[in-house]
């Protein structure tokens, strides 16, 4: 991957202001303002880079409201690379205004979850929360956090192992990421069983970290590059024909950002 550089004006200026992105933006119906969808956010980025507008907390608020779903990018008739522009805009924002305590702690927690201490803490949390009804997903039912499941008392514990298929058609590396470890251990086990039944030997690396997508989309490019480089080095220790994932975010990061 190329070294990240200043926000490229040529990419932002490809926007022809047609407004198709407004029709698919999930945040626009709630904010109902020009800066509340891709066209306006790109315009803000262009004005900041040109020096026509200071990078203020209000500009940062508009950028932060973007969910990075990329529906605007897929519908754009001029193929504006919205993700690349917005990631670099957020990097510029982080350098100028900082990242904020909550966001910084959230990103750090994704890395901590895969440490030895983190895995033990998640397992303990799973045991403590297990008596709660399933509709109470987390002890913090606010914002996006309420959609996350409870930590599992039976964390995914199959790292550093090879699961042989009886009649091997090929060998797959299972990129577990962080969510499989903490919340979807049973799903991870089922992936291995399914691939084995299909005739594929599954390799589970010992030390895969978070894919880094949350850091990347937040504009924390240094942290993303560190995680990416670590994971590529870890994956390079194993022989495999293809990579399998159970997390679409990890899959997207591996395909587009590694």
Structure commentary:
It is built from 14 helices and four strands. A four-stranded mixed sheet has the order 1-3-2-4. Helix 4 (38-50) crosses helix 7 and helix 5 (57-64) runs antiparallel to helix 7. The protein is elongated and about 60 Å long. It has two domains: 9-97, Alpha-helical ferredoxin (Fumarate Reductase Iron-sulfur Protein, Chain B, domain 2, Orthogonal Bundle); 99-258, no CATH class. The chain starts with 8 loop residues before the first helix and ends with a helix. The longest helix has 16 residues, at 82-97. The protein is 49% helix and 7% strand. It has helices at 9-12, 20-24, 28-31, 38-50, 57-64, 71-75, 82-97, 101-112, 116-129, 179-182, 185-197, 213-217, 221-235, 248-256, and strands at residues 161-163, 170-175, 200-204, 242-245. The protein is of the alpha/beta class and 258 residues long.
Properties at a glance:
Fumarate Reductase Iron-sulfur Protein, Chain B, domain 2; elongated; 14 helices; 7% strand; four-stranded mixed beta sheet; disordered N terminus; alpha/beta; 258 residues
Present the secondary structure layout.
Layout lengths: L8 H4 L7 H5 L3 H4 L6 H13 L6 H8 L6 H5 L6 H16 L3 H12 L3 H14 L31 E3 L6 E6 L3 H4 L2 H13 L2 E5 L8 H5 L3 H15 L6 E4 L2 H9 L2
Parallel strand pairs: 2-3, 2-4
Antiparallel strand pairs: 1-3
Helix pairs in contact: 4-7, 5-7
């Amino acid at each position: 991957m190329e070294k990240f550089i200043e926000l490229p004006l040529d990419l932002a200026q490809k926007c022809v202001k047609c407004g198709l992105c407004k029709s698919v933006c999930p945040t626009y119906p709630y904010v109902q303002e020009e800066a509340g969808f891709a066209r306006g956010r790109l315009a803000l980025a262009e004005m900041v880079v040109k020096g026509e507008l200071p990078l203020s907390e209000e500009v940062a608020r508009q950028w932060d409201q973007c969910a990075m779903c990329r529906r605007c990018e897929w519908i754009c008739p001029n193929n504006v690379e919205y993700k690349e522009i917005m990631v670099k805009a957020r990097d510029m924002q982080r350098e100028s205004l900082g990242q904020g305590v909550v966001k910084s702690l959230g990103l750090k927690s994704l890395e901590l979850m895969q440490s030895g201490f983190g895995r033990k803490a998640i397992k303990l949390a799973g045991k403590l929360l297990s008596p709660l009804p399933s509709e109470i997903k987390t002890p913090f039912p606010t914002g996006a956090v309420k959609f996350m499941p409870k930590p599992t008392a039976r964390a995914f514990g199959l790292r550093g192992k090879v699961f042989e298929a009886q009649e091997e058609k090929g060998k797959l590396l299972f990129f577990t990421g962080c969510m499989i470890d903490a919340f979807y251990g049973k799903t991870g086990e089922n992936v291995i069983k399914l691939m084995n039944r299909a005739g594929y030997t599954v390799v589970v690396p010992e030390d895969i970290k978070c894919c880094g997508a949350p850091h990347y989309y937040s504009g924390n490019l240094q942290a993303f590059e560190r995680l990416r480089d670590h994971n590529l080095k870890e994956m390079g220790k194993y022989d495999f024909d293809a990579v399998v994932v159970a997390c679409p975010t990890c899959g997207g990061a591996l395909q587009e950002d590694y």
